[in-house]
Design goal:
One of its GO terms (molecular function) is coenzyme A diphosphatase activity. The chain is α+β, with helices and mostly antiparallel strands. Helices cover about 20% and strands about 30% of the residues.
Length: about 230
């Protein structure tokens, strides 16, 4: 779930105006399963940093949910997808498993669990839902609830080939270190627009995490560091 870039604009080429190396990384002891459970059970006083993007698509709002799957390896990771290039929206972008709420979904957690299974074959039996982050409204009019869950290692994935070009993992410690959070800015549609990116070098390729996905990860950083 990410905003669509302006036509012919490569977000990688948009100037970086700030890197947040001055902010502290989340202490690694907060990544332990018991620590993550405790944080959601007794949340700290905190404020999300990013909640509404500047609108760039004129359509009725749609409610959606995404799963932020934290794989509990020795060094925990976040499971992400790369969408296929032929999709009509968000083509080729890096995203969490997720999508629009269906009328049969009882809540955002149910939608996120369903989407994780439909998109990448991650069965609910492998997941332990911890809680939710605040609603995030994208510039493309999606009102997204991020659902955070622990994932037991040992799962087998079956990505939906129509929607998902690739599935990969990024270390949680990398994403929770603001030294890797870059602020971009450009002038488009008569106004200044800004977004975050968190480019991750995965072997011989760059995973360019940006937009709504990066914004929700930034809120997760604020939640864990509070």
């Amino acid at each position: 779930m990410k905003p669509v870039p302006p036509p012919s604009i490569d977000p990688r080429q948009v100037p970086v105006i700030q890197v947040d190396a001055h902010l502290p990384a989340v202490p690694t002891d907060r990544y332990a399963p018991q620590a993550l459970r405790a944080r959601f059970q007794s949340p700290p006083v905190w404020q999300p940093e990013l909640v509404v993007e500047k609108k760039f698509m004129d359509r009725a709002p749609m409610y959606a949910a995404v799963m932020i799957p934290i794989v509990m390896r020795v060094e925990p990771t976040v499971l992400l997808t790369q969408r296929t290039s032929h999709l009509s929206t968000h083509a080729g972008q890096i995203a969490f498993p997720g999508g629009k709420l269906d009328e049969n979904d009882v809540d955002a957690a149910a939608a996120a669990l369903r989407e994780a299974q439909e998109e990448v074959g991650l069965a609910p039996d492998w997941l332990e839902v911890l809680g939710q982050l605040p609603l995030y409204t994208t510039g493309s009019a999606f009102m997204v609830t991020p659902v955070v869950a622990l994932v037991r290692p040992g799962f087998t994935l079956q990505p939906n080939a129509y929607e998902v070009a690739d599935v990969f993992e990024v270390p949680l410690a990398f994403l929770m270190n603001p030294a890797h959070h870059r602020h971009h800015q450009m002038h488009w549609q008569g106004m200044q627009r800004q977004w975050l990116s968190m480019p991750y070098q995965d072997c011989d390729q760059e995973r360019f995490i940006w937009g709504a996905t990066a914004g929700m990860l930034r809120n997760f950083y604020r939640f864990l560091s509070a």
